Amino acid sequence: MREKLFLLTSKRVAARLTNVFDFVWPTAAAIWNLRWQVTGYLQVNPSASHAEVSGRFVAGSGIKGANLHRACLNTSWEDQQQEFARFLLVEFCALYETWCEGALVELGQPTNLAKSFQFPTTLTAGSPTKGVGYGIASINGTLSQTMIGAFYPVLCRNLKYSKPHLEDLLKCYRYFKELRNALVHSGGTTSTAFLDAQAEYLTLTSASLGVKEVPSYVPQTSNGNVKISLRGVVGFGEIVLKLICTLDAELVQSSSAELVFLSRWREKHGTGMISMASNTQAREGRIIRLVRQLDLPAPVVTPQLDALLKSHGLVTY
User: Fold this and answer.
1) Fewer Cβ close by (within 10 Å): the C or N end of the chain?
2) To 10 degrees, the CA torsion angle through 239, 243, 249, 251?
């Protein structure tokens, strides 16, 4: 999947998301298993001290200060899932914000556009004035026919690419972002912004998001303390990945992306001209191999890509 991404920022964040996915359920299962083992041990040895329990289950791990009595006996499994879900929620929101800013920097665009990619589109008189539609239009104001022909169709084959669902994916993002804000900034209580985002969330379906199931959630009421679904937060991580893969492809159509491509070519292959075979098939194969060395997917070698490399003095034949 990472091969069908263009921006280095997209590759880094996608790799981190994949690592988190690989970590989540095995870790949750390990916590559950530890609870079961500690409970069983203390049933047999009810007078065991904290030091004895730690020696039995923690010795050799390098972990200091683990209170297994409190963690495994005095804290419910439901509460531990809540804590785990909180960590993941903050991580996923931070990763998407990192992508928004990093992608703009990489494309040489103003970082004040980052907020645009965190909201659905607002239309005024039929034109996008806020949100993701405005962000895409701002960057793609000058298109590159070379990038559209050579890379866009390839990146659209990424299994996570979800352009038809983009607006609803961002409605989903807003719900979880407001959930995160309630936990981090509002002491875990609901706000008007959160309740509005929840109302929008209730309109979403698996079909509108392009997923097998809508990430589960715990319904909240006004002035209530928010709760999180661990399963739902993991599903939200998949939403973030879909957003990144979709926007990575959409922004590759820009002239800014063309400049990124040329910069990466020069960084890898130098500024001198590479001699190419006059035979079309051989030349196209060579260009594909050179592009793959840039950690990019194999492009469609169009006449425009050929001409771009020639016009910048990077190839000759």
Assistant:
1) N
2) 180
pLDDT digits 0-9 by tens, 143-172: 999 999 999 999 999 999 999 999 999 999
d(CA 99, CA 105): 10
Residues 6+ apart with CB under 8 A from 245: 1, 4, 5, 10, 14, 155, 158, 160, 161, 162
Q: How far is CA 125 from CA 129, 136, 312, in A?
A: 9, 18, 41
Global pTM exceeds 0.85:
yes
**For the segment 3-23, what is each residue's pLDDT rounded down to a tens digit?**
799 999 999 999 999 999 999
Torsion from C-alpha of 145, 148, 151, 153, nearest 10 degrees: -150
Task: Give the count of alpha carbons within 13 A of 279, CB side only.
Answer: 4
User: How many beta carbons lie within 10 A of that of residue 204, not counting itself?
Assistant: 18
Domain ranges of the chain: 1-21+81-254, 270-316
Task: Please give the DSSP secondary-structure letter assigned to residue 127.
Answer: E
